[in-house]
Specification:
Blueprint (H helix, E strand, L loop, with lengths): L1 H54 L2 H11 L4 H31 L5 H7 L1 H6 L4 H6 L3 H22 L6 H17 L20 H31 L2 H17 L1 H19 L3 H38 L6 H8 L2 H16 L5 H26 L1 H22 L6 H6 L2 H20 L4 H22 L2 H10 L1 H7 L1
Helix pairs in contact: 1-3, 1-7, 1-9, 1-10, 1-11, 2-3, 2-11, 4-8, 7-8, 9-10, 9-15, 9-16, 10-12, 10-13, 11-12, 11-14, 12-13, 12-14, 12-18, 12-19, 13-16, 14-16, 15-16, 18-19, 20-21
Length: 478
C-alpha cells in the first residue's frame, strides 16, 4: 500500500506539473513569442550542462544509497552529509566553469547570468534524500506551494516581450526557494554533521560512474535545442520546445512510478529479495504500458488543431511535431521500468550507461544529417529514434531475466484499444472547431473508448483495477 500511496502522491505532483503548463504556456507563448521562447530555451539548455557537471551523478546515487540505509539513522545521516558536501564542492567547481564561459559571452550576457540562478539552486537540492526514505509528501507539498506562487508572479509581472528577464528571474528564483525550503525538514530526519567523520572520496567514483549515463541522457535531451539554435534558428528552438513541453508534461504520469519504485526495489535488493522485486517490475511494466499507450495515441489524435489553439497561431507547425514526438511517451515508459527500476537498483550500471550512450550517439549523428535539410522536423525524428534505441537495447539485455516476448504479446490489447481511440479522436478533431469545450469532449470520448475496450478485451490492467476496487468479490467467488 505504501507504493500505491507514494505513486499517487508523486502522480498528484505530476498532475500539477501538467496543469500549470496548461495555464502558463499559452500565455507565455503569446507574450514572449517564438523568439522569446526560443531564447529562453536555448540559454537554459546551455545552463543545464553546467548543472549536469555540478550534480555529477549525485541525485540517483544519493537516492539509492539512502534507500539502502533507510532504517539505520546514524548511517543514513553520515551518508547524507557526505553526499551533500560532495555536491557543494562539485557545484562550486561548475560555477567556476560557468563564470569562465560567461566572460566570453558578448550576446545575452544578462540572460545567461539570470539563468545561472538555477545552477546555484541545484547545490541545495535534497529531494533525493526524501525519495530515498520514501517520504514523497514532503517534496510534493513543497513543490505545490512554490509552483503556485511562481504561476501567480508570472501573470502579475510578465506582460510583454521585453519581460523575458523577469520571467527567467521568476522561474529560476522559484527553483532556489523551493530547494531551500526542504532543509528545515531535515531536523527530524538526520543528525548534525560530525565533520571529523566526513569522508567524501569514497562517494566520488560511484557518482562519476552514474555521471556517464547522465551525460549521455543530457546530450539527447538538450543537444537538440543547442544544435537547432546553431544549424537552424532560435525560432525553431521555440517550436521544438513547445512540442517538447507538452510531451514531457505527460511522461511523468508513467515515469513517476519509477521514482517510487527505485528506492523500494533498491531496498528489496539490499535485503536479498530479488525474485520478489522482479515480479513487482513485471506488474510495473504492464501498468506503465497501459497508461502510456492512450497518452501517445491521444496526443497524436488532437495535435494538429491543438497546437495553434493552445500556443497561438504563430506556433501552428508545432502540431506535426507533437504527432512525431508522441511515441517517446511509450519508449520512455519502457526504459524507465528496465533502466531506472531494474538496472540501477541491481547495480547493472554498465548496461544502463551503454543504453543511454547509444541513444546519445544516434541523436547527435541523426541531428547532424537531418537538421540542415529538414530543420526542426529532423531534430524531432532524431529524438524519437534515440528514445526507441534506448528502450530496445534495455529490453534486449534483460531478455534472460524477464519473458520479454510474453510482455510484448499481451500488450496487443492495449495497442488495439489505443489505435481505435486514435482513429475516432482524429476524425472528431478534424470535423470539430477547437475550443475548450470540444477539447475536453474529445479527451473524455477518448478515455471512455479506451476504458470500455480494456473491459471488453479483459486486459491485465482491467483485472488489476478490478481486484483493487473489489477485492472481496474475488475471494467470495473463490
Amino acid at each position: 500500500m505504501k507504493i500505491v500511496k507514494n505513486y499517487f502522491l508523486n502522480s498528484s505532483y505530476q498532475l500539477l506539473i501538467v496543469i500549470l503548463p496548461i495555464i502558463t504556456i499559452p500565455y507565455i507563448s503569446r507574450v514572449l513569442g517564438p523568439e522569446g521562447v526560443g531564447l529562453n530555451t536555448f540559454t537554459f539548455a546551455v545552463i543545464q550542462y553546467f548543472i549536469l557537471i555540478g550534480n555529477v551523478g549525485i541525485t540517483t546515487y544519493g537516492n539509492r544509497e539512502i534507500a539502502y540505509n533507510q532504517v539505520d539513522r546514524q548511517r543514513r545521516s553520515q551518508i547524507f552529509w557526505e553526499i551533500s558536501f560532495l555536491r557543494f564542492i562539485t557545484v562550486g567547481f561548475s560555477i567556476l566553469l560557468f563564470l569562465i564561459f560567461l566572460f566570453f559571452q558578448k550576446d545575452n550576457f544578462v540572460v545567461y547570468l539570470l539563468q545561472s540562478v538555477a545552477l546555484i539552486a541545484s547545490a541545495f537540492d535534497i529531494s533525493w534524500y526524501f525519495m530515498g526514505v520514501e517520504k514523497f509528501s514532503r517534496t510534493v507539498g513543497r513543490n505545490f506551494l512554490v509552483s503556485m506562487l511562481s504561476v501567480i508572479f508570472i501573470f502579475l509581472f510578465v506582460k510583454q516581450e521585453s519581460d523575458l528577464l523577469i520571467y527567467i528571474v521568476i522561474v529560476t528564483g522559484s527553483m532556489l526557494i523551493g530547494n531551500l525550503s526542504l532543509w528545515p525538514s531535515l531536523r527530524r530526519e538526520v543528525d548534525s554533521p560530525k565533520l571529523k567523520k566526513i569522508r567524501i572520496k569514497h562517494h566520488l567514483l560511484p557518482t562519476l560512474q552514474l555521471f556517464l549515463p547522465q551525460i549521455a541522457i543530457q546530450i539527447y535531451v538538450v543537444a537538440n535545442k543547442n544544435m537547432l539554435g546553431i544549424f537552424d534558428s532560435i525560432t525553431a528552438v521555440g517550436y521544438f520546445n513547445q512540442s517538447n513541453s507538452i510531451i514531457l508534461a505527460l511522461t511523468p504520469f508513467v515515469t513517476s512510478l519509477g521514482t517510487v519504485m527505485l528506492p523500494r526495489v533498491s531496498n528489496m535488493f539490499a535485503e536479498g529479495n530479488s525474485s520478489e522485486a522482479k515480479k513487482m517490475l513485471e506488474k510495473s511494466f504492464e501498468i506503465m504500458t497501459a497508461i502510456a499507450i492512450p497518452m501517445m495515441f491521444g496526443v497524436m489524435g488532437i495535435a494538429l488543431k491543438f497546437a495553434p489553439f493552445f500556443f497561438g497561431k504563430d506556433f501552428n507547425s508545432v502540431g506535426l511535431l507533437m504527432m512525431i514526438q508522441a511515441p517517446i511517451i511509450l519508449f520512455m515508459a519502457w526504459s524507465n521500468v528496465i533502466g531506472v527500476q531494474y538496472l540501477l537498483p541491481f547495480n547493472r550500471l554498465n548496461h544502463f550507461t551503454i543504453s543511454v550512450s547509444i541513444g546519445a550517439i544516434l541523436n547527435v549523428v541523426i541531428n547532424l544529417i537531418t537538421i540542415p535539410v529538414y530543420g526542426v522536423v529532423g531534430a524531432m525524428v532524431a529524438t524519437v529514434i534515440a528514445e526507441f534505441s534506448v528502450a530496445v537495447y534495455q529490453l534486449y539485455i534483460v531478455r534472460k531475466e524477464f519473458n520479454i516476448f510474453n510482455m510484448m504479446i499481451w500488450s496487443w490489447k492495449y495497442f488495439l484499444s489505443g489505435l481505435i481511440m486514435f482513429i475516432v479522436i482524429y476524425i472528431l478533431n478534424g470535423k470539430m472547431v477547437m475550443n475548450n469545450h470540444n477539447l475536453i469532449l474529445q479527451m473524455l470520448i477518448g478515455c471512455i473508448i479506451y476504458i470500455v475496450l480494456n473491459v471488453i478485451l479483459r486486459t491485465g490492467m482491467f483485472y488489476q483495477v478490478k481486484n483493487m476496487l473489489f477485492p472481496k468479490l474475488d475471494k467470495e467467488k473463490g
